[in-house]
Amino acid sequence: MVTVQLRDVAEGDRERLLAWRNSPDVSAHMYSDHKIGHGEHDHWFDVARHDPRRRYWIIEVDGQPMGLANLADIDLVHRRCAWAYYLASPKVRGLGVGSFVEFQIIEYVFGQLHLNKLWCEVLVSNERVWRLHELYGFQREALFRQHVMKQGHEVDVVGLGLLASDWDIRRDAMAERLRAKGYAIPPTARQAA
Prior knowledge:
Blueprint: E1 4-8, H1 14-22, H2 24-27, H3 38-48, E2 55-61, E3 64-75, E4 80-87, H4 97-112, E5 117-123, H5 127-135, E6 139-150, E7 153-163, H6 164-180, H7 189-192
Parallel strand pairs: 4-5
Antiparallel strand pairs: 1-2, 2-3, 3-4, 5-7, 6-7
Helix pairs in contact: 4-6
C-alpha cells in the first residue's frame, strides 16, 4: 500500500513544477504544447500562489513529490470551482493514486468549501481521466469541438460537472472502492453513527 498526501505548494517546488509541466508525459494532456520558459513559469507561480480564486497542492506518494492538484475559478457566490491534476511520475500510475486524489479534492470542495459544483475540462483523447471522473459521478455537460490546438491539430475537449447531490449518491461506493485498495478513508457521518 502507498501513502498519498496533498500538501500546499511551496517555494521549493518552483523548479520541480516547471520540469514537470514541460515533460512530454504531462504536456501531452495540457491545453498548451509550447515549452514553458522560466519567465512565463515564474509569472504563473508568483501570481497563482497568491490568487484567492486558486489553490494548489503537491501530490506526495510515500513522502515523495509525484504530481500537482489544483482548484481554479473558486467562486463562493455561485458556489462552484474547476479542478485538475496530473501525476508527473509514470511509476505511480495504476496504484489508485489519481483516484485517491480525486476523492480528497471532492471531499474538500463539498465538505470544507461548501460549494455546490465541481467541474473540469479534459482532452477527449485522455479517456482514462474522463472515465475516472465519470466513475466518481461527474456527468458530461459539454463537448467543446476543436477547442484547443495540440501539435498543430484541433482537439475536442470534454466538459464534466459534479454536483454536491451527485457526490452524496456516489461517495460511499467510491470510499469503499478506495478502502478495498488499502487507502484509509474516514466513514461518512451516517456510517460513524
